[in-house]
Design goal:
Length: 457
Amino acid sequence: MDNGGVAHRKKKGERLPWLDKIVRSHSSISSFACPLGGLVSGYLLDRIGRKKTLMLINVLSIVSWALIAVCSTTNFDLMYTQILIARVIIGIVIGLVSAPASIYSAEIATPKMRGRLTVLTSLSIAVGILLIYSMGYAVPDDFRLVAGLAAGICVLSLALLLFMPESPAWLMSKDREEEAERSLKKIRGYGAYSQRIPEVEKELMRMRDNVLAQRRAGQESFLRLLKQPQVYKPLGIIIGFFGFQQFSGIFVIVVYAAKVSSEASVSMDPFLCTVLIGITRVVATMLVAYVLDTLGRKPPSIFSGVGMLVCMFGLALCSYFPPIESLHWIPTVLILTYIFTSTLGFLTMPFSMLAELFPQAVRGPASGVTVFFTYLMSFCTIKLYPSMVELLGSANVFLIYGAVSLLGVLYVIYVVPETKGKSLQEIEDYFRGMSHGSTPSQEVEEDEVSNLSSESV
């Protein structure tokens, strides 16, 4: 839930101090709650399953949007409190939803379909953001109506989840093999077919073997494994990558889309600009899978960082020297190009590499720790942005984001490893400091790397 969908549009010359207060507070409060959701999601996924976790997420989303939809129209303090509570809830939801949908998609998909299916998760997020932007543009003066419509979408999602089977992999991990078989048959299109299906039997056998392997790997604690170089090295690298992602202003642009558009001297309606931002992100997300599979990780990230710094320096110039009437389109193009280039690299690559860099034994907890720190950094950047603009001016803030993007490019060049074409074992041995030659299973492992990287976007 971003400002593009819930903020009133100011009329020319109109002062809305209550709006400024809400925007400054609720834009960062959800990011503050995100780490809590991230920490809880792992427990819920294992405890109650994928389906019930997704249902809980929708219930919490309905409560959050409903609070905004019915917030007070006469008592500012009450309205302010209701919106803040809603933002805390939706922040927890954002942390919760970071993993379940992708994990469920990965667990039910066949190997050939896994990458494309899990990319739909990222595409759905981009489409959802575009939908909220569009509603904010279409109904600029009634954020309560926008919130009510969003709550209705969550109700529809919750209703559809009732017909969704539970993940067979999770059921197998809980030793509920008969339920896992029924669920897998339904997912594969066999319905209530009672006879044994060879393909289903093979999948169930692989699930059973994976569960046994994970249980053996999980016997050693995460803290003990953290002392090993193949764990702490990738953990440090990926957290650093996420740090450059956050402090380059990517999520600031997403959250403060309308505000940034105004500060960058965009001549068009800033709410219309947010809609164009949403469309750009959807298009770029559709290209991510192709970029991952053909160009690897480092080249797109370098291109992304260079594009981001050029756009930020350009926006700084537009803030210092507002374009003349005939060039009023330049800030809009710069913002849209920034969104496009960031989505191709810095926005998506850190998430895609989470599944590649960590060994299987610590992939879950290590990813959780990484997401926790990522959301903490996100809170800091979103919370500090309004104060930075007041203290330094928007032009200097854009320059800072551009400088961070430049440092991020250097970080990718000299620190982030290229994982395209490498097996998971080769990546693990790289961090362990060993050389690893080709193995008979390398082709299988390479296919697994490709699938896992697509799952994380």
